[in-house]
Amino acid sequence: ANVNFLFRKIVHLTAFGFLAILFYNSFEKNRFLRAWIITTIYAATDELHQAFIPNRTGSFWDVGLDSLGALLALLALQFLQKYVVRRKKG
């Protein structure tokens, strides 16, 4: 059961990280903040929706985990853009 729990949480982090990157690429201004906020709002509405599904529960912890996944992915993206891509150009 612990492996399943850990796997599901890793999937939350990863999926919402990718979603945040997609949102990031959708904007030209305030990309980081907009992507993070929209991803977090989506996570909250997803958990709210789950609260109405039989045999499912909505979780504030999952919203936090999804938001963290988005934040970590966006930070990694900025790091890659700032240090890795520029280093190759320079």
From TrEMBL:
Keywords, comma-separated and alphabetical: Membrane, Transmembrane, Transmembrane helix
Pinpoint the VanZ-like domain residues.
7-79
InterPro entries registered for this protein in UniProt:
VanZ-like (IPR006976)
Q: Does the keyword Transmembrane apply?
A: yes
Q: Name one Pfam family in it.
A: VanZ
The UniProt entry, under NCBIfam families, shows: vanZ_1 (NF037970)
Any idea what this protein is called? VanZ-like domain-containing protein
Native organism: Lederbergia galactosidilytica
